[in-house]
Every structure is written in structure tokens, then in C-alpha cells.
Design the sequence.
């Protein structure tokens, strides 16, 4: 038996980078700030996100309007903040539903194996074979525009990714002695799957969920841009860009605000995902 | 002291976390060429770390102090490039798990030839044919044909033989073997140990055999050093250690391997080794020791000369003699 | 021999390789007996352990536990009978669910089988921990705070929580430090005496197995090649493989001269 105290030989870079897990901390704090701003949007800004005031149209950024105003005279900053409600919701629901469904299906496939796994595996293969965005657009186009249909489309398309992750983890964990012990102790399948395998299999799925969150926000913005997601006058980042894109050259601030918001949210959840991944890696090591 | 051509470790300490966790403290040990020295210890004793330090193979987070000399070279002061040239030709190492140390996609003959090529200016053909000779030397039958095989086509014992052939390729003066037989079945284990012993005698190599198994070490080595919680607690001639251990821990290890059917129970050492963080400044074995008295728990204990070239880190060695 | 608690008849298992992992193993285990099984890697000793505990379904043969062939039962019927035969596995680091506290892991066993009421779980957990020589405070900790030897004690406690009649110890000390191995072996011997358990102790160390078990089965390539009865010493082993195993081990007594 080798010395258990021997630290892993691979180099992880300077200690200060990973010891405090700064990406996780910064990510979580930033996310919390964005979330609170979205929830308490009316307290963050005194403007109305929807009311039109053409007299104030297309004003450049100033102390009064931090991000300027759009073609209908609405404060861009206000709309960006209110839009966070919609976009974060797209991210959250777009992750939560596939995560739950995909995890359960993945557990079942990995745990039972055999024909159950084979059938699920083929369905997963078929869905994964389609380009992600194309399939989402196709489904929304079929069901009709709107957020609910966007959620349905995101769920239909991305549960398979979680199923793949959880299935692989489950197959590996199934052979672990503590799962054998649980069977040996006469525990039922559900107890073994949800009590003994799931808590140990979920970490990589949660890490993936973070990058999926960013992706969903971007997909939501993209679909709204194409008129398939949120509908005017709802403030939504993609929709805001779509509405004002003709003015992009003359009044660039109208797209900078929402564009920046998408980038920042993506970055923040990536940081969280990175930090989580690091934590998971260290639990393994 | 005369400059020995072998390996000499002087007062080696290895720490992690900016010195907060000291894994190895003040280890001195020498392995002359042509001799076999055993390093025995449990997991966490620091034996693997010590042996890795001898090759300059410490993790980057480790801070080492003291001196490690190989002939007139000082290992701890060398640059990575210098270390690479010493590794192999001066000192080589084999590990517990040969599968993870062998390149899985390279034919074993080529892996061995590569070592030769990186240390000597010979043609590729010469290196290949020497690789076959080496495989033959470590007891792989039909070596010429087997040189074209991949690691996974060999059994565990055969893989360990290939690792040994690779280690021998650059004709090292010192071979460090870290638990070389632990993953192997007993019969194979015996064969590998015999091979190591034969190679040491015929090549005049120094062998540092690191293992948790006192019997394995005792079967090959003329001297044994026993490590506990980062320190050498006893060092001496094998026979002395086996017959007259002077440190209660060594005695306990010996006793726990005894299978006396009349007693119905194994002799065990109570408790478990201290974790890296909470090692006492006094005798580190005292909490588990039957003979411990107050002075054992209050002050550090030095390695005391208890016989010719025999040292023990214990102030109760007198009482040990009566047990 | 008194009426056996376990009778294994010709169990075989093939995993798809050219050779069966287990080829027609038969033996009996008496109540309160400790039976040794010795073999090297690939000898089929772990497959034997898993088939007897029905963690693997044997392809053929019968596992008769208290007069009932477990191998013939369907999964649902089997589940209720599983707790009678418990296993302690080789790797204590993989044997405990890292996300459960020790108290929860032990308590769960008793709750699932209705061996204790929820109110008294804490008390029973403390008793179990005490029985395997661990402080009762261990109940609140996660597996990661324990050493290999302590984990193996916890695994034994978890097996005992099911109140089994047979304990299969599958190389329970092979991955432990030498100074700790003896503690765990002694614990198993003590528990066997105290609780009247029947034990199948599996290992690769012939001398250790011989010390622990009066009767020893020697396995090679999926078969039981020799049974050394209680009244005979391994020194008189007849099979050449057993003799080779004997000779391969360096004995410290001989080395000391």
C-alpha cells in the first residue's frame, strides 16, 4: 500500500489559486448580486421598463440614463435589469427540468442496464444526433413562440445530456463496494439508486448544469431575437437586441447593455461551474 | 567519512503546506553500491516520500531540506535537466504498479530501448537488441518475440520484470524498489524478489527496497531501517532487528506477523499511526507503546546507538531487552 | 459435523471469458464455524464470496441457507433474506458511502429491516460502534475522517447491524497496515465467539488463513483444489499448489535463523 499522505504528483498551479476556490466564491457572490437586482428590480431603478416616452428616444448614456435610452425612450439599464428576471428564469427552468428528468432516466439506465439501458441509449443517441440549436428552434417553431414552449423545447433537447452523465457515473458507482454492500444488506432498488448512488453521481451533472445555464440564457436570447421566445414589450436581452439592431451603428448603447448582460451572466455561471468542478476534483483526489 | 559511491541521505526532512505538515523528519540512511538496504514502514510513515526524494521525484508542493548525495552529486540541488541525466544511469526506480508506469501504447522492447537511447549514443538497432538481452536477463522467455508485445499482453509479474529491465537499461548504480511485489501473488512475488537479489549481486548495484512487509525486506536486505510517522525509529543489521529489536514498534510489527495457534489471537499494536498534522514532538510511538513512561511523552527522543551499527529511537531499550 | 447452516452445491460462474471464474464449488459451513478460503488473484475466491452472498447469481448450483436454496429465489424474495449473509469487502475506502454519516449508514440498516424503532436507533448505533471498538462519537462523522482500519471496523459494524448469521470476510485486512491487520482479525474472531457467527474468511495469505480457520479451502483457477480439515496442518498439505504457496512465503522465523 502506498503512502496515503503523498499528495498527487500532478501540478495544480500556485496554491492561492485553488485553495480558496476563488472562482466559486466570486461566481456565487456575483450571481447573488445579479439575482437580487433582478428580484428587487423596482428598487434598483426608478424608471418603468415598458412605458414609452418618444421624447426621450435614443439618448446616449448619461448620469440620468446610465446605458442610454432606446428607440422608444425607455431606459436601457432599467430594461436590462428587468430582463434579468426573464433570462435567469430561462436559465433556471431550462436547467432544472432537464436535470431532474435526465438524472432519473440516467439512474434507471445505468442501474438496470440490459434492454432498459439499450432502449434509453438509442433515444439519447437520436436526440443528441441533432444540432442542439436547430432542434430547439424546430420544436418552438412547431409549438409556436413563447416562453413556455421554449422551456418545453429546452427540456426535450437537453435532458439527454444529463442522462449521459448520470448513466456513466451510475455504471461506475454500481460496482463500488458500498453499493454492493447496500444490495447485500437487502436494500430496495429505489433506496440504492436515490440514497446511495445519486448523491455520489450528481456532482458532475451539477458542474455541467452551470455551463448549461449559460447556454440556455444564450439560447433564450437567440430565440427571442428571432421572435420565437419572449414577446415584446417584455424586456429580454435577446429581444432588446433584436428590436434595436437597426440602430446599432448610430446608437450602439442600445445593444451594448443587453449584450454585456449576456456575457456577464455567462461568465459568472462559468466561474461557478469552474469552482464546482475544482471542488469535485479535489473530493475525488 | 570516505565518499561512498552509493546513495547517502543525510538529515532529510520533507514538509508540505509551508512547513506546517512535516511528512519526513531528519531521515539519514545510506545505501552503498552492491548492498541491499530495506526501508520498512506503514502507510503515512514517509518511506515512499523518502525514496522518491532520492530520485528528485518530490511533488512540487513539497519542501525538502537536508542532503541527498549520489556519489559526489547532490540530488536536492540539481536542476530538472541535471536530474534527468542522473535518473536512469545513476539511480533508477521501480514502482508497485507497473501498468501505470509503462506506456500502454508502446511496445515494451521500444520502451526499454528508449531508455538506452536517452542515456547512450548508440544506434537504434543496437538499443533494440540490447533491450532484448535485458528482457532475457530479467527472465522473460522468448524475449525477442515478446519485445514486440504491448504492456497489457503481459501478466502483472511479467510487467514488473519489464519495469526492472527498463530500470536496468541505463546501468544504474542504485535501484530503488518501492513496494515492487505488493500487487503480485505470493509465488510471483518470490520470483521477483529472487531476481532483484540476483541482479544486485551480479551487477554490483545498491538496492533500496521499500516495503510495508518486514518479511519481504528481511528476505533480501542486509540492513533494515524502520520508519514510523516520518522518522527512522530503528536501523540496524537485519538479523539484529529480527532477533533483538530494540524499539517497541519494531517488536510490535514482528509480533503481529507471528502466527501462534496456541494463543488463538494475533498480537496487535493498539491504536493507529498519528495523522500528518498531529505528531507529537516527543516519541511519536508513545501513545501506542506498552513501555511508555513520562519522559517518552515529554521530550523528543534521539536515535541512540544500541549495538554495532544498530540504532533505536527509544529511551526504554534496556527494558526492551527483557521483553 | 453438526447440521450445516450453509451448504453450497456445485456453484459455477462464467463472466464471458474463456475460463469460468468459478467452476463447480461445493462446501458446507457449520453453525459457529470459521472457514478459511485461500487463493491468489484470479482463483475465484471473490467470485465465490459474491455468489454465496447472491451479489452475483451463480450460473449453476445451489446455495442452501437454512434449508432454502437462495439461488432459486427471485430478487424480491431474496431481498428479505439477504441480511442473513453479510459481507465485509476488501477495500474499506470504497465500502462506505461517502455522503452518509456513520450513524446514518448503520441506522439505515436497522430501519429498513425493522430491527429497531426510530427512537432507539441512536442507542443501537452506539452499541454497534462499541462492539467494534469505536467511540460512539464516530456516529456523527463521515467516512473520510477515518483511517483504513477504522473504516473496516465500521464496515463490520454495518454488517452486524443486519444481525446476520453468516459473515463473509473477503480479504478484509489485505489493504490495511500490518500493525492494524491484527486488530481487525482479532475483532472478527472475538465477534464470532461472542455472537456465535459463522464466518467465511477469505484471503491470499495462507499462514494467516491457517491461523484463523481450523478448516481451509484452497482455490486455484476457479476450483477448490484442496480442503485442509481441522485436524490436519497446512504443513501436510497434499496438493502441489498448496505446497508451492507455502514455500513462497518468507517466514520471519526462518529468516531470523
Sequence:
Amino acid at each position: 500500500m502506498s503512502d496515503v499522505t503523498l499528495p498527487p504528483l500532478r501540478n495544480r498551479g500556485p496554491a492561492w489559486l485553488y485553495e480558496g476556490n476563488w472562482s466559486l466564491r466570486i461566481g456565487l457572490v456575483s450571481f447573488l448580486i445579479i439575482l437580487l437586482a433582478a428580484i428587487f428590480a423596482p428598487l434598483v431603478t426608478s424608471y418603468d421598463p415598458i412605458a414609452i416616452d418618444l421624447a426621450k428616444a435614443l439618448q446616449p448614456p448619461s448620469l440620468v440614463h446610465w446605458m442610454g435610452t432606446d428607440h422608444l425612450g425607455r431606459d436601457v439599464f432599467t430594461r436590462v435589469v428587468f430582463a434579468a428576471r426573464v433570462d435567469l428564469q430561462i436559465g433556471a427552468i431550462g436547467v432544472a427540468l432537464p436535470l431532474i428528468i435526465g438524472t432519473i432516466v440516467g439512474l434507471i439506465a445505468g442501474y438496470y442496464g440490459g434492454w432498459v439501458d439499450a432502449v434509453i441509449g438509442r433515444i439519447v443517441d437520436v436526440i443528441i444526433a441533432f444540432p442542439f440549436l436547430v432542434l430547439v428552434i424546430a420544436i418552438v417553431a412547431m409549438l409556436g413562440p413563447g416562453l413556455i414552449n421554449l422551456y418545453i423545447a429546452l427540456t426535450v433537447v437537453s435532458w439527454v445530456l444529463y442522462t449521459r452523465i448520470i448513466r456513466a457515473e451510475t455504471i461506475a458507482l454500481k460496482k463500488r463496494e458500498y453499493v454492493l454492500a447496500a444490495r447485500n444488506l437487502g436494500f430496495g432498488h429505489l433506496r440504492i439508486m436515490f440514497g446511495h448512488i445519486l448523491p455520489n453521481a450528481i456532482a458532475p451533472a451539477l458542474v455541467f448544469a452551470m455551463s448549461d445555464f449559460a447556454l440556455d440564457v444564450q439560447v433564450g436570447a437567440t430565440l427571442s431575437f428571432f421572435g420565437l421566445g419572449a414577446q415584446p414589450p417584455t424586456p429580454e436581452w435577446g429581444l432588446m437586441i433584436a428590436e434595436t439592431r437597426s440602430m446599432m451603428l448610430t446608437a450602439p448603447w442600445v445593444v451594448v447593455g443587453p449584450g454585456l448582460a449576456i456575457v456577464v451572466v455567462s461568465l459568472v455561471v462559468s466561474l461557478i461551474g469552474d469552482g464546482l468542478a475544482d471542488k469535485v476534483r479535489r473530493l475525488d483526489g | 567519512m570516505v565518499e561512498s559511491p552509493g546513495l547517502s541521505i543525510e538529515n532529510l526532512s520533507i514538509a508540505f503546506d509551508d512547513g506546517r505538515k512535516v511528512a519526513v523528519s531528519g531521515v539519514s540512511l545510506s545505501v552503498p553500491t552492491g548492498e541491499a538496504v530495506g526501508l520498512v514502514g506503514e502507510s503515512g510513515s514517509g518511506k515512499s516520500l523518502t525514496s522518491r526524494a532520492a530520485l528528485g521525484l518530490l511533488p512540487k508542493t513539497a519542501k525538502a531540506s537536508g542532503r541527498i548525495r549520489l556519489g559526489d552529486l547532490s540530488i536536492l540541488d540539481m536542476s530538472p535537466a541535471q536530474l534527468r541525466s542522473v535518473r536512469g544511469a545513476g539511480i533508477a526506480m521501480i514502482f508497485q504498479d507497473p501498468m501505470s508506469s509503462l506506456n500502454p501504447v508502446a511496445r515494451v522492447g521500444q520502451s526499454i530501448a528508449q531508455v538506452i537511447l536517452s542515456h547512450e549514443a548508440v544506434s537504434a538497432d543496437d538499443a533494440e537488441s540490447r533491450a532484448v538481452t535485458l528482457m532475457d536477463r530479467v527472465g522473460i522467455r522468448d524475449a525477442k518475440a515478446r519485445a514486440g508485445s504491448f504492456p497489457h499482453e503481459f501478466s502483472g509479474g511479467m510487467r514488473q520484470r519489464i519495469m526492472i529491465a527498463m530500470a536496468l537499461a541505463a546501468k544504474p548504480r542504485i535501484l530503488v524498489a518501492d513496494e515492487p511485489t505488493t500487487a503480485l501473488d505470493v509465488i510471483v512475488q518470490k520470483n521477483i524478489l529472487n531476481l532483484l537479489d540476483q541482479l544486485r549481486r551480479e551487477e554490483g548495484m545498491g538496492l533500496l527496497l521499500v516495503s510495508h512487509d518486514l518479511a519481504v525486506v528481511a528476505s533480501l536486505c542486509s540492513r533494515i531501517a524502520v520508519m514510523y510517522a516520518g522518522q527512522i525509529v530503528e536501523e540496524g543489521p537485519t538479523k539484529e532487528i529480527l532477533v533483538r529489536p530494540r524499539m517497541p514498534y519494531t517488536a510490535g510489527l514482528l509480533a503481529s506477523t507471528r502466527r501462534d495457534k496456541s494463543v488463538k489471537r494475533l498480537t496487535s499494536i493498539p491504536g493507529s499511526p498519528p495523522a500528518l498534522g498531529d505528531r507529537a514532538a516527543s516519541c511519536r510511538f508513545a501513545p501506542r507503546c506498552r513501555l511508555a513512561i513520562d519522559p517518552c511523552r515529554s521530550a523528543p527522543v534521539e536515535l541512540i546507538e544500541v549495538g554495532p551499527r544498530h540504532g533505536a529511537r527509544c529511551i526504554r531499550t534496556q527494558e526492551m531487552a527483557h521483553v | 459435523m453438526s447440521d450445516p447452516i450453509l451448504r453450497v452445491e456445485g456453484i459455477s460462474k462464467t463472466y464471458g471469458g474463456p475460463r469460468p471464474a468459478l467452476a463447480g464449488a461445493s462446501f458446507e459451513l457449520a453453525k459457529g464455524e470459521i472457514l478459511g478460503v485461500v487463493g491468489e488473484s484470479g482463483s475465484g475466491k471473490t467470485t465465490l464470496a459474491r455468489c454465496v452472498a447472491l451479489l452475483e447469481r451463480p450460473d449453476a448450483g445451489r446455495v442452501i441457507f437454512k434449508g432454502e436454496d437462495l439461488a432459486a429465489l427471485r430478487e424480491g424474495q431474496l431481498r428479505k433474506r439477504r441480511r442473513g449473509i453479510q459481507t465485509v469487502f476488501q477495500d474499506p475506502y470504497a465500502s462506505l458511502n461517502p455522503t452518509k454519516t456513520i450513524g446514518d449508514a448503520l441506522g439505515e440498516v436497522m430501519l429498513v429491516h425493522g430491527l429497531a424503532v426510530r427512537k432507539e436507533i441512536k442507542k443501537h448505533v452506539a452499541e454497534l460502534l462499541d462492539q467494534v471498538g469505536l467511540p460512539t462519537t464516530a456516529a456523527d462523522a463521515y467516512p473520510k475522517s477515518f483511517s483504513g482500519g477504522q473504516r473496516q471496523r465500521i464496515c463490520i459494524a454495518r454488517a452486524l447491524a443486519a444481525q446476520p448469521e453468516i459473515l463473509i470476510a473477503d480479504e478484509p485486512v489485505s489493504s490495511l497496515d500490518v500493525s492494524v491487520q491484527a486488530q481487525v482479525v482479532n475483532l472478527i474472531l472475538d465477534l464470532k465467539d461472542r455472537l456465535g457467527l459463522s464466518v467465511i474468511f477469505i484471503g491470499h495469505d495462507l499462514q494467516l488463513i491457517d491461523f484463523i480457520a481450523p478448516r481451509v479451502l484452497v482455490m486455484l483457477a476457479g476450483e477448490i483444489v484442496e480442503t485442509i480439515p481441522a485436524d490436519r496442518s497446512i504443513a501436510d498439505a497434499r496438493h502441489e499448489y498448496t505446497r508451492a504457496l507455502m514455500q513462497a512465503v518468507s517466514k520471519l522465523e526462518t529468516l531470523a535463523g
